[in-house]
Design brief:
Elements lengths: L10 H15 L6 H8 L13 H13 L12 H18 L4 H4 L7 H16 L4 H20 L30 H27 L5
């Protein structure tokens, strides 16, 4: 009798399985043993594709970044392009918040992350931003997007009104924030983005022609 045919193990299958674990249980859930079990293979077979666990997590992070839409930089002015890109980036990371700590270390050698950084930086240079300022803007936008995806501000407050009643009178409505999580968290991100872009719009004419 012929042996049952095993599904071919590929990098893509490993990344998809690892991504599902990260989304469901967090980064700590990913191990070669756990992945091998999920994929129905022997642990050592994973090493033919990824020598280390960190390389698997890098691939998961890059697969997430690859979903961010950067097409606006080819069709819009720099400020509108930054807005559209930041909103796409924010939405992607909010759907996969557990991967943010990996992204926080920077792009490293991850192809999608480097391609995104190259696109953003190049568009800013083309718009007239000096190289140093273009670098600052890229870092600033990353801080804004990553920070907004790490956790909910609204859900950080206890829902028991008794916690605030006497000792924290200015927070007497804080127990209601969780009910309005989406409007609070998304409103905060949009306000931050509006503020940053408005400030940059005023700054650009003052920096054109300079090197910093």
């Amino acid at each position: 009798m012929a042996r049952p045919r095993q599904t071919l193990l590929t990098r893509q299958r490993i990344v998809e399985a690892a991504a599902a674990l990260v989304d469901a249980e967090g980064l700590a859930a990913v191990s070669t043993r756990r992945l091998a079990t999920e994929l129905g293979v022997a642990g050592p077979s994973l090493y033919h594709h990824f020598p280390t666990k960190n390389e698997i997590l890098d691939a998961v992070a890059d697969a997430v970044v690859a979903r961010v839409d950067v097409s606006s930089f080819a069709t819009h002015d720099w400020r509108d392009a930054l807005r559209l890109w930041a909103c796409s980036y924010h939405a992607v990371l909010c759907a996969h918040p557990n991967v943010v700590p990996v992204l926080a270390h920077g792009p490293g050698r991850r192809p999608a992350a480097l391609a995104m950084a190259d696109t953003v930086y190049g568009a800013l240079i083309d718009a007239g931003w000096p190289p140093a300022r273009a670098t600052h803007i890229g870092a600033l936008m990353r801080y804004l997007v990553h920070g907004s995806a790490l956790g909910s501000f609204a859900r950080g407050f206890d829902e028991d009104p008794g916690v605030y009643a006497e000792r924290y009178p200015h927070l007497r409505h804080a127990h209601l924030l969780a009910e309005h999580q989406h409007s609070v968290d998304e409103g905060a991100f949009e306000l931050g983005l509006d503020t940053v872009l408005a400030g940059l719009g005023r700054l650009l004419p003052l920096t054109k022609g300079t090197r910093t």
